[in-house]
Inverse folding.
């Protein structure tokens, strides 16, 4: 069993992303000072991956309005990301950085590397402005993710970060009641 990645600080990395028609450098420093999502997927030009990335692209404006930047990451190069962007209508919708991780450094840092395949598992990480991982979701390659559920988790993480002593119950949505854990609540929920 390994130590939990929750509340750990992101590790240093240097990479190149395809973003808004250009190749741009990205480091862990770019994730600091705002909420970030690092969204790993196995490979460009595949099957489940474009459905997930297209779903994320559809929710990107809402995430941006919440002060969240998204970084999609695969072990492909930034050149491959550009080629996929240029040839797929679904991927053309993406306006967040598509980070290349051909060395696997970032995938290793987040514990999602499949060594024997040189690919990343489907991993989603929500990082607070201080660089701490607050949400981690990792699962098998055949299971696609939902950006709307991720959105709810980010809203809960942001709420808890700004409301000391409160926690968000299951299925919590903004505007709903939260909980303030105390001895008085034990056995009453």
């Amino acid at each position: 069993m390994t130590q939990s990645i929750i509340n750990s600080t992101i590790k240093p990395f240097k990479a190149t992303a395809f973003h808004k028609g250009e190749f741009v450098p990205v480091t862990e420093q770019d994730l600091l000072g705002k909420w970030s999502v690092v969204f790993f997927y196995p490979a460009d030009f595949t099957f489940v991956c474009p459905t997930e990335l297209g779903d994320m692209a559809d929710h990107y404006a809402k995430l941006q309005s919440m002060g969240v930047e998204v970084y999609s990451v695969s072990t492909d190069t930034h050149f491959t990301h550009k080629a996929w962007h240029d040839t797929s209508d679904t991927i053309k919708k993406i306006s967040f950085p598509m980070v290349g991780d051909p060395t696997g450094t970032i995938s290793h840092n987040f514990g999602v590397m499949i060594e024997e395949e040189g690919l990343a598992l489907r991993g989603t990480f929500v990082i607070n402005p201080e660089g701490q991982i607050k949400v981690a979701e990792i699962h098998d390659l055949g299971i696609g993710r939902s950006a709307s559920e991720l959105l709810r988790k980010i809203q809960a993480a942001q709420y808890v970060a700004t409301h000391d002593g409160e926690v968000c119950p299951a299925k919590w949505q903004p505007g709903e009641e939260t909980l303030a854990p105390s001895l008085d609540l034990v056995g009453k929920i």
